[in-house]
Amino acid sequence: MDISTPIIFIGIFIIACVSLFLVFKFGIKEKSYEEAVAEQRQQTNALLGVRAKPKEKKSKKSSKKPKDKSSLENDGDEIVETTNTKHVGFKEKPEILNLPKEPSPVKKEEIKEKVTKQEKKSVNLESEPIKAKKEKVKQPAPVTEKIETAAVKHIVEKKEKAVVEKIEEKKIEKTEVTPVAAPTLTVNTAKEKKKKKSEFNTLQQIKKEKLLTEAIEAQTALQTRIREIRGEVQAEKTQQNHKIKSLEELLNTKNIEVESGNNRNQTLQHQLQQLQAKFNDDLQKLVEENNGLVHQKQQLEGRLTQGQDAESMLLQLRSDLQNAQMELHRLNCDLQEVARDRQNFQVESDQVKNINKQLEETRQGLESQITILTKKEEEHKKEMSHLTTNLHQQVEENRKHEHTILQLRNEIKQLKAEKIDINNIIVQTELQTTLAQLDKTNDKNKTLLIKIEEQKAKNNVLTKEIRLKEQDSQKQFIQRLFPEIEELKSISAKENWQSEFEKLITKHLESIKTVKETTKDATEENLLKMQVANYKSIIDETQQTKLEYETKLEQEKQRNDTLSKQCQQLNRVPSGDTTATIEKLNEEVNRLSELLRLEQTSKNGNLNGSPKEQNYKSTNGIAVIEGTGH
Fold first, then answer.
1. What Å distances lie between residue 35 and 32, 41, 48, 249, 476, CA to CA?
2. Final residue belonging to a domain, choices 297, 320, 344
3. C-alpha span between 332 and 328 (Å, rounded)
4. Are residues 136 and 118 both part of a single domain?
5. Neighbours of 12 (CB within 10 A)
6. Which end of the chain is least crowded, N or C, by CB within 10 Å?
7. Number of compact structural domains in the chain
8. Cα distance from N-terminal residue to C-terminal residue, the chain
9. 253 with 330, same domain?
10. Distance, CA of 169 to CA of 188 (rounded, Å)
11. SS3 state of residue 31
12. Whole-angstrom distance, CA of residue 75 vs CA of residue 81
């Protein structure tokens, strides 16, 4: 299993690399940088050429049309001016002719019909070119926006040429019609009506003025429209220039992207070549290992147990191969997703750059830390070397000390043997002396026991007297504190006098509190002063009693010390019979000392309570009572 697992992983890695190489080589058809640039230039030239030509033509046509119109209008004005000058300036002398009166209205009607027809024609001719111009102006906008193919462009150009030709033909017809109208009118009027020339001339002038005003208005409208068209054309040119610039920028960015993609592909190809070289090396190693394994297998054919293990290993390898095939299939699916993920590599590259910067910063910090650590390691090594030298010295010294200790132990053993001999001799002599002293000590112990028993009786009597005195002093102290409570005297003879005193004192305090709330401040201050004076006198008396008790206790301590010294002297005598008696005496002495200590502590506690009460009563007289009750 140790050899099979890395072989399987290496095989999977090699198959994945080969599949990636095949996908990048055959699945993705790439173009060279020069071909891509040429195609983009062709596209840009096509776009720029198609859009620029119709604009130039339109600009030329728009520049020509107003000139033609202005020239035609100027020609018409000149013709009209000539006709007007002829009609207005020419004044013949009136001749009297005898003409019939009937045909005159018919001629007038014919002339009017001709004039109306000519006016309608001129109006139609003027309206048609205006409409054609509007159509011409409206056509470029969709053409510039919706041109997608060359066929559409050719069709649009043909339509524009046809419209321009129609407009020019209509202009020519207008130029031909307008000058003809005036002379026909003049000729007809000159031949048919000589008498009413003045009236006809006036009507004709009015009509011509109307036509002139209409033509001028149409001309002004056309000029304004031409100006608007020029502004629109200039705006479209600027928009197209902006679009061209944006397209050039996009081309530059795309070219850069293509270069980066080619560089990445080259790096990937280089990596694949390296992987193939590694693969070949690994195959050679594996072949050598397989040869060694085959040789071992030939040696181990006779061993059935190992053969069974090998079969189980083969089964596992087959299962691993199946798993590897499944993983290869999954990797093929992943490769298809890799092609989709190539678009996200740019964003990831930026992130990788930022991460590389951060890693460089961390690397610099780590290098500085490593230098510091190396210095510390060198210092530690120096210290370790120094310590090792010290250890060697100490080990040598310990060896010397051990040698000396062995010598001393031998000497001690010899001295112990000598001491045992000496002790035996001394014991024999001491036994003889102790036997003589035991008789004396027994007599002394008997006398001491008698004295101790007498002292115990005295101590018990003293303790009882001290307790009674303390109780009497406490009772007197409480009665002095609370002279108002008369029941305390009757209760003092009882055993449970402390609990009953507490109850009576608490009742008295509650009554005092209720009284204090009702009384005035001045009376309260006087009462407190009186109580403070009483308390001071009581405290002085208690201090005197305390001093007396202390003197008595010191005397008792001295007696106990003398007894303890006597007991210690008795303990020094080594004897088997006296040890038991001495121990008993020591126990009794300890017990008596503990009793005395407890009595002293109780006395000190009772006596030390009075100054605390005094200090507390000086601030608040009622609080002292609570402290004594407790």
1. 5, 10, 20, 18, 128
2. 344
3. 6
4. yes
5. 17
6. C
7. 3
8. 88
9. no
10. 29
11. coil
12. 10
Separation CA 119–CA 215 (nearest Å): 12
pLDDT along the chain (630 residues), means of 10: 81 89 76 79 74 48 47 45 44 47 45 50 46 42 44 59 62 44 47 67 86 89 88 87 87 85 82 83 82 75 68 79 80 76 73 79 80 83 83 82 80 80 76 75 76 77 78 74 68 64 75 65 65 69 72 73 66 52 64 68 54 40 41
Q: Compute φ and ψ for 139, nearest 5 degrees.
A: -70, -35
210 to 196, 205, 213, 215, 604: CA distances (angstroms): 22, 9, 5, 9, 145
What Cα–Cα distance (Å) separates residue 490 from each residue in 118, 194, 495?
160, 176, 12
- Residue found by looking up tokens 């209205």 in the block: 105
Q: DSSP readout, 401-426? A: HHHHHHHHHHHHHHHHHHHHHHHHHH
Tokens at residue 459, please? 């101590």
Exposure class string for 394-427: b at 16+ Cβ within 10 A, else e: eeeeeeeeeeeeeeeeeeeeeeeeeeeeeeeeee
With tokens 């088997």, the residue in question is 576
Query: Domain limits at 290?
Result: 4-21+279-344
State the angle between helix axes of 578-619 and 345-481 in degrees (0 to 180), rounded to the nearest 10. 90
Clarify whether residues 131 and 8 are in a common domain: no
- pLDDT tens for each residue of 229-268: 888 888 888 888 888 888 888 888 888 888 888 888 888 8
Q: Does residue 392 fall inside a structural domain?
A: no
Report the alpha-carbon angle 78-81-82, nearest 5.
Answer: 90
Report yes or no on 357 lying in a domain: no
Greatest pairwise CA separation for the chain in angstroms: 217
Rounded to whole angstroms, how far apart are CA atoms 499 and 629?
9
Please classify residue 181 by burial: count the beta carbons closer than 10 Å to its beta carbon, then call 0-12 exposed, 13-18 middle and 19+ buried: buried
Give the end of a domain, one of 344, 362, 392.
344
pTM value is 0.21
Length of the chain: 630
Q: Which two tokens stand for residue 619?
A: 């601030």
- Placement of tokens 């020094």 in the chain: 572
**Please, what is the Cα angle at 224 between 220 and 227, to 5 degrees?**
140
At 438, the amino acid letter reads L
Contacts of 273 (CB under 8 A, 6+ apart): none
Q: Residues 213, 296: one domain?
A: no
Task: Annotate 254-269 with b (16+ C-beta within 10 A) or e (fewer).
Answer: eeeebeeeeeeeeeee
Same domain, 256 and 296: no
Give residue 335's pLDDT.
76
Segment 3-37, tens digit of pLDDT: 788 888 888 999 998 888 888 877 766 667 788 88
Asked if the structure places residue 182 within a domain, the reply is yes
Convert 159-175 to b/e letters by CB count within 10 Å (16 or more is b). ebeebbeebbebbeebb
Which token pair is 262? 């080619």
Helix (H, G, I), strand (E, B) or coil at 323: helix
Residues 329, 15: Cα–Cα separation, whole Å: 11
Question: Based on the domain organization, do 16 and 41 belong to the same domain?
Answer: no
Give the separation between CA 232 and CA 145, rounded to whole angstroms: 14
